[in-house]
Amino acid sequence: MPARPRHIGITTRLGTALALLILLPAIFYSAYELTSLTRSEEMLAEIYRQQLDVVLFSLNQYAWDIANNWANSLNAVVEDHPKEEASASISSFLKENGGIRCVFLADSLQQKARVVCAPAPASPSPVSPPSTDSVLACLRRNSRQVERLFDLKSTGYRKLSPMFLGDSTDANSTVLVFVAGGIRQPSVVAGFVIDPERFVREVLGKKLSEVAGYDFLLGVNRKGSDTFIFATGDMSTADIRQTKQLWLFPDYVVGIRLKGQTIEEIARGRFYHNMLLIVLLDLILVAGAWFVFRTVKKEVELAQIKSDFVSNVSHELKTPLSLIRMFGETLQMKRVPTEEKKQEYYDTIVQESERLTRLVNNILNFSRIEAGRKEYHFTGVDLNAVTGGVLKSYESHLLQQGFVLSVELDDPIPAVHADAEAVSESLLNIIDNAIKYSRTDKRLRIATGALHGGAYVEVEDHGIGIEPHHQKKIFEKFYRVSSGLVHNTKGSGLGLTLVQHIMDAHHGTVTVKSEPGKGSTFRLAFPPPDKPNVTTEEP
Q: What pTM does this model have?
């Protein structure tokens, strides 16, 4: 399939970006305005409903947390006290926890039960405490629930299950049942008989005030009653917009209303909300425009980089070809006076051919990488042997360029899981850079060593060095330093990109330490052979 022209791709991206920037905000705002065309009463009802859902969830969660804490405390009493001492501990427990009328304990077969009640508060119509028979009758009537509680207890999970002492769902007969004991004491059926009004006032009251905040008024009353058991402010049941049941006490409801807020104020709030939305959309448009600008800028920069790449590669190809042709024509015309001079010409032709081969290989390898077709053949590799092979083929070129070579091969070093040809290619690219960017101080050190179970090879030169802000970018494709001696030295900008890709494929790292005017040290670090997926870093 023919490649798609670059300018078409840019146009498509720009068109898509602009369409998204213009159309999406307009669509979102239009949808928002359409959904806002409902009546004010419906909006208020939705506000009440949502807030009441949040409040009710918070209240019920809080109530269950309290009940679970009670269950923990009662379970501790059952575990830590024998039967004859448990009643005194339960009485103490009842004094400390308001809202509980009685506590009962029954055997697992629901044959025997013991009921301990808190002192009844003074009241014109006091509620009689539950009898042992009514507790046992409740448990037998809900025997399947009780069996389920025992099954859950055997799996390590304790659950509280609500029941009713009588045949009706009268709130005054609400009990919470769970299975206690089971570690140091036999498992028993335990439960709380709850006083709903005391529970609402003494336990939920503080939570009601907290969740109501400054915007809402909340009240709890029994169904059909005009009197609130508890309210967070002055209001009557006629002010309540919506009500919902409490989970623990189905006969009691929570009501909600806004605190002193009118429909006009709500409409004004909606107006400010819309204005804020418009400002946000404007900011999105500005951000989008900036994104388009950056995209275009990057595309232009990339086009310039590619143009420079073509120019640099053309120069890189032209130089060795010119030398090969010149020396070849000289030899062809038999104008070389001595055999020694001939050999020198032959060496130059071979070296320039090798240079040309490396350049072509770099371009081909980069093309394979871009197409996702680059393959590696991993085996156990001795870095000392690979380094020695590279130096053997490159030593004469280094000496001809006037370099003083220092080789420090650590022996022994562990073999690494690598592609020997790819490692050689990486090392050649780094050495080639060291030759290009060295000026008067032509010293080169190549060393190997062990590192964290793996091995490394590094090349140190005393060339012109690299500025710190360029060091992270030199591994990007086509990137070349835009000023100074580095820019003046021709190159394709692919060598270090290929090195980075090769090291990534080996799950290793390539790092650089450099200081302008003092040279650079490149290190290729490979992970241990038994851990090829572990990235090796410098110590």
A: 0.41
